[in-house]
Amino acid sequence: MFYSYNINILNKKQSIHNFMYWKNFYFFLSTICILLSILSIGIFGFNWSIDFTGGFLLKVHCDELIEIDKILDISNSIGLKNIHISHFGSIHDVIIRSSYLPNISILDFSHKILSVFYRYSQSKSQITCSEYIGPSADNNLIKTLFLSLILAFLFLSIYIVLRFSWSLSIGILLSLLHDVLLTLGCISIFRIEMNSIIIVSLLSIIGYSLNDSIVVSDRIRENIKIFEYLSFLDVLNLSLTQVYSRTLITSATTFSVAAILYYFGNEIIKSFSFTMMLGIFVGTLSSIYVSSSLSFQCYKIINNDKKRS
């Protein structure tokens, strides 16, 4: 996959992978993926959970093993459609979520759910928790969410700009936006329920991608000082060659943990771990190719294509 070449002036018997040889291909691929993500978000939007739309949330315990498919079939037969059920804690406990139903109170909804469980099994069933999330809570949550993301990105931007040069800083920040946008696009395409857990995973992805990009950019900054006689392009390829194995090993380890959580976890954990796997995959490619390629383009613009002094 790598196109290698030698930097003779280094006087070392090692090949330098020419990562920047593929920059145009990854620019094209990233542009296509971003356009598809924007298109999906614009047309289909997100599968918002009741955390954002408002609705009912019940926790139910049943002495008999709860088979979710059968509960859903019975619910549909009595007119309770578009409800989401997932196990939590044990196979005898479930969380039931439903969007707001007109002319139905939380008490009426609870009675309907108990009737569903009564038809499912004669064993004792009880509601251990019931919540109603109204429109006002929904609006406050969305405002708080976007304010938190904006403030987080603002402080990250200040830190990155103070630590790195303009070309590296712009590359890091744009690659972060690239990672989040592609992950959001995948969430929209695969119709993953957008809930508070997914927001946590998005923040985790931002932190993970930022860490990878900073490791790469820090090595680039060090090599710029050490190898003053090399062009900026050669410094990028040298730095990426030095750190890409570390990046791949770290990403593979984290990805395997997320995959294990996805395989063994419940529905809530599955959505979190699947989003994390998407973010890790996108963030790894971004830290190696997208961030460095953007930094190279920014360097050319800032320095008017002149050789690094």
From TrEMBL:
Family, similarity comment: Belongs to the SecD/SecF family. SecF subfamily.
Protein's name in the database: Protein-export membrane protein SecF
Domain Protein export membrane protein SecD/SecF C-terminal positions: 123-295
Predominant subcellular localization, coarse grouping: membrane
GO biological process: intracellular protein transmembrane transport; protein targeting; protein transport by the Sec complex
Segments crossing the lipid bilayer: 25-50, 144-162, 168-190, 197-216, 243-264, 271-290
Function: Part of the Sec protein translocase complex. Interacts with the SecYEG preprotein conducting channel. SecDF uses the proton motive force (PMF) to complete protein translocation after the ATP-dependent function of SecA.
InterPro entries: SecD/SecF_arch_bac, SecD/SecF_bac, SecD/SecF_CS, SecD_SecF_C, SecF_bac
GO-annotated cellular components: plasma membrane
GO molecular function: protein-transporting ATPase activity
Topological relation to the membrane, as annotated: Multi-pass membrane protein
Annotated keywords: Cell membrane, Membrane, Protein transport, Translocation, Transmembrane, Transmembrane helix, Transport
Subcellular location: Cell membrane
Subunit structure: Forms a complex with SecD. Part of the essential Sec protein translocation apparatus which comprises SecA, SecYEG and auxiliary proteins SecDF-YajC and YidC.
Organism name: Buchnera aphidicola subsp. Melaphis rhois
The organism's place on the tree of life at top rank: Bacteria
